[in-house]
Amino acid sequence: MAHSAYLLGHSDNEHQRLTLQNEAISPFTERTLRSAGVRPGMSVLDIGAGLGYVSLLAAGLVGPGGHVVGIERDPGSVRKAWILAQEARLADTVRYEVADLADFTWPEKFDVLVGRYILMYLPDPVAALRRLTALLKPDGIVVMHEMDFTNTSPTRPPLPEWDEYYALWPGPFLATGAVPDFGPRLARTFLDAGLRQPEVDTWTPVAGRSGDPAVLDWLSSTCREIATPLRNAGVPVPDHLRFDDALPQRLRGLVLSREVRVDGPTQFGAHARLMSRAPHE
């Protein structure tokens, strides 16, 4: 069940991009957690915690009477996650463990299992869910947030300069076995893992004309940071495309000056409660 290496790496630039990403999508993640029934006093396991942003969202919902454990295999990310938890004054509610999903165990059962952008990297997400739900209480809740960034025409009116960069996003994921359109597969994955039919909500973040500036910052920075994964995966890139530090600013300028609407990756939030077992079982 060990998952593939995180394609975008763990550089300072990537951590900055993850911060922009969180600002853009955290309202949807929080809405999904609330819809799933995450409430004060619960215990939460956050898988693939990264910088801990989902863990902090969960900590805010469970309050001081609950607790959150975030697992992440990159020690550098865990160190930064601890700093963010301290800055948010949530260090008493959140703890992080450097661990791989395949090896992780815990002495107590959790009320909630949550993950954001993690199943897409797993070679066998169904088996992963089956194993991880064993860490839940009998009436535990599974909450997963994934996306789909395979839309090849995200701009209206069309902005070819943007579309060319965005169209490159799926390439390195497909080349390494990750799934760029995992969002629509969430319901089937839950069912195949033996879970109930999940409730699934969707949301498409919008940037540019009448859109959210945070979404534009996230998407434009990703267009730059995708350069290294493209190169590492051997994905062909047109010669005229440049991935220099000024790329995000150029793309933002084009979108705003031409009053373009940009659709970001469609977000999928799925949640289901385990089938409670009778007391004698």
UniProtKB/TrEMBL annotation:
One biological process term in Gene Ontology: antibiotic biosynthetic process
Family annotation (InterPro entries): Methyltranfer_dom (IPR025714), rRNA_Ade_Mease_Trfase_CS (IPR020596), SAM-dependent_MTases_sf (IPR029063)
Domain Methyltransferase: 40-150
Keywords, alphabetical: Methyltransferase, Transferase
Transferase listed as a keyword: yes
Record keyword Transferase present: yes
GO molecular function: rRNA (adenine-N6,N6-)-dimethyltransferase activity
Protein name as it appears in the record: Class I SAM-dependent methyltransferase
Organism whose genome encodes this protein: Streptomyces dioscori
